[in-house]
Amino acid sequence: MGTLQVLRESLTAAELLKGLGITVLLGRFLATTSARQQKGALTWNSPIALGAITTAGLFFLFLVARSWLALVDHHVPEPYLDEFFHIPQAQTYCEGRYWDWDDKITTPPGLYLLSVAYHKFWMLTECTPLTLRSNNLLATLLTALVAARCRSLIEARSAERDGGSTSQSLSYYSYHTAINIALFPVIFFFSALYYTDTFSTLFVLLAYQNHLLRVGLDKPSVLNDVWTVVLGVFGLFMRQTNVFWIVVYMGGLEAVHALRSLKPAPADQSARELTLAGDIRYYLWRASVGDIHDLPLNLSWPHDWFFSLATIAVAAVCNPSEVLRQAWPHITVLGLFAGFVAWNEGVVLGDKSNHVATIHLAQMLYIWPFFAFFSAPLLIPSFLSLLEAPLRLVTKSAKIPSKPTLTQPLLKPEEPEKPLIPGITDLLFVKRIYYIPYILGTVLLSLAVVKFNTIIHPFTLADNRHYMFYVFRYTILGSVKLRYLLSTPPHDQSPLDPPPTTRLRKHPPPSKSKTTVTTTPTPTPTPPPPTPSTSSPPTSTALLWLLATTLSLVTAPLVEPRYFILPWVFWRLLVPAWKPAAGAGKDLPGLGRVYQLGQSIDLRLGLETVWFLAINVGTMYMFLFRSFYWRDADGEVSDGGRVQRFMW
């Protein structure tokens, strides 16, 4: 039976109406919880228009995911790979035998319990591979819904920090970002297979949405605290490693929010000692009362990262009650998880022999090529920035334009100022002489990790059904030079930096008049507040993301794209919108039109959608139509003659 015939028989009128009904409900829910009520003309922020547009996007997502499910059910009707363990276990739960457990399963039973509830809700009498797989189709739609709310709340919290007006309205950037997150190939592929990844992502995002709502309140209620614990436990019921995101990342963000909420009074610098020891005492005192150093990421340098960590640590030690009051639900989740580990004598359920935690630092080098490949469209601003210089040379228009371009600072350059403390601090924090040694140090450290900590798990090279087998075979194991080349970590500009990347200088000397100003270890002039959707996340958020990512990856000896899902999702939610400066590139052939179009819509989003769809079509084709058989040394078919298929 041809592909079109399969789709025609699967996407019946009843099935389409069912999907339309679900997406209408989800779209209306998103619209009513996100849109501003406006009178008059129909705008993006009106509930009717927003509901229609979000419904259209969700229905498109439903059509793509339902088509994928239909094709998988037709070509792969029996359980495949890990489904050999998950589907029988879910069927056991559907029969009410909740204490029967397959010891080969290493993850908690959250997915199976949800499947039982799913079948009871839809009044399904039998847990078949198709009905169990359809669980993840619904989870994919809900993931898009929750991701849209998360991005919208991120923009609202960003506006609060910048001192601008706040709104719960859903921006187009938030909406389209959420659709792209649901289409992310490593997530979308498993929307038609009975794996834990889709629901695991959904429940962690639900916990994150709750966190973003909590930090928008003056004081969370006890009921919300309890709900935070419940969501955290649900997240751990999906996958144990979610503890790093629920406890470390979100718990850390809650602690930083508690410290920001202290809002100490402005300090008078007139009595400040202009010595190194005086500066240290002054900044320690300011940190102790909650004046933490937390610049937007695009304005920070490595020394700002250090000061951010140092001032947050000092503030937390000096204000433990405020931190505990805000973060106790996450500490409770950590305690419950520790109790589970003690009871289970380990993190992994079932077979522990092939899932032994280890230190695998090379994981933090693999993640950057992974991000660069999947998020290539988000690097367009950096690519265009590189094109400007040669184009100006060709067009003989190298003069600085009157308005800032993509590569120029938004703030006017200032003359160097006399440093507050001469000598070593001037060299470190104004001239930043450490930066080149810092880059060289990170490169050398990366090369050392490649040489001494490259771990090749037996599963990686024993199974040629996974794409990582070929990645390792033709890169990590194929060429020593390529292995070291890929180990170089990213530096300077990141997609988290809204272009242009503006680097600010050290603070000016204090005025002789007795004015009061709020200070941080390296105060900087306050730039005009950006629009919420283009705001860069705080340095503390990026550092907590890096910490959670490191903990979740370096403890895993096996390299799997699925392990990168949550780091990518949280990173993608933090990526700000791109809007070129007015008049950028107007004197450059071709680029001016691109920048002009970028004024009205973020061009990266559409390209990201097309890119993800192309990857999905490719992996779907390989899985369905490029099957093969394993053969032994004599050429005889092995593994019982089962069909083998390519997958993530």
TrEMBL record:
Its EC number is 2.4.1.256. The keyword Zinc does not apply. The chain crosses the membrane at residues 16-35, 47-69, 175-195, 226-250, 365-387, 435-455, 610-629. The keyword Isomerase does not apply. Coiled coil: none annotated. It holds the Pfam family DIE2_ALG10. It is an enzyme of class 2 (transferase). GO terms for biological process: dolichol-linked oligosaccharide biosynthetic process. Residues 512-521 have a biased composition (Low complexity). Residues 491-537 are annotated as: Disordered. Residues 522-532 have a biased composition (Pro residues). It is a multi-pass membrane protein. It is found in: Endoplasmic reticulum membrane. It catalyses: an alpha-D-Glc-(1->3)-alpha-D-Glc-(1->3)-alpha-D-Man-(1->2)-alpha-D-Man-(1->2)-alpha-D-Man-(1->3)-[alpha-D-Man-(1->2)-alpha-D-Man-(1->3)-[alpha-D-Man-(1->2)-alpha-D-Man-(1->6)]-alpha-D-Man-(1->6)]-beta-D-Man-(1->4)-beta-D-GlcNAc-(1->4)-alpha-D-GlcNAc-diphospho-di-trans,poly-cis-dolichol + a di-trans,poly-cis-dolichyl beta-D-glucosyl phosphate = a alpha-D-Glc-(1->2)-alpha-D-Glc-(1->3)-alpha-D-Glc-(1->3)-alpha-D-Man-(1->2)-alpha-D-Man-(1->2)-alpha-D-Man-(1->3)-[alpha-D-Man-(1->2)-alpha-D-Man-(1->3)-[alpha-D-Man-(1->2)-alpha-D-Man-(1->6)]-alpha-D-Man-(1->6)]-beta-D-Man-(1->4)-beta-D-GlcNAc-(1->4)-alpha-D-GlcNAc-diphospho-di-trans,poly-cis-dolichol + a di-trans,poly-cis-dolichyl phosphate + H(+). Pathway: Protein modification; protein glycosylation. Keywords: Endoplasmic reticulum, Glycosyltransferase, Membrane, Transferase, Transmembrane, Transmembrane helix. GO terms for cellular component: endoplasmic reticulum membrane. One of its GO terms (molecular function) is dolichyl pyrophosphate Glc2Man9GlcNAc2 alpha-1,2-glucosyltransferase activity. Belongs to the ALG10 glucosyltransferase family. Dol-P-Glc:Glc(2)Man(9)GlcNAc(2)-PP-Dol alpha-1,2-glucosyltransferase that operates in the biosynthetic pathway of dolichol-linked oligosaccharides, the glycan precursors employed in protein asparagine (N)-glycosylation. The assembly of dolichol-linked oligosaccharides begins on the cytosolic side of the endoplasmic reticulum membrane and finishes in its lumen. The sequential addition of sugars to dolichol pyrophosphate produces dolichol-linked oligosaccharides containing fourteen sugars, including two GlcNAcs, nine mannoses and three glucoses. This is Dol-P-Glc:Glc(2)Man(9)GlcNAc(2)-PP-Dol alpha-1,2-glucosyltransferase.
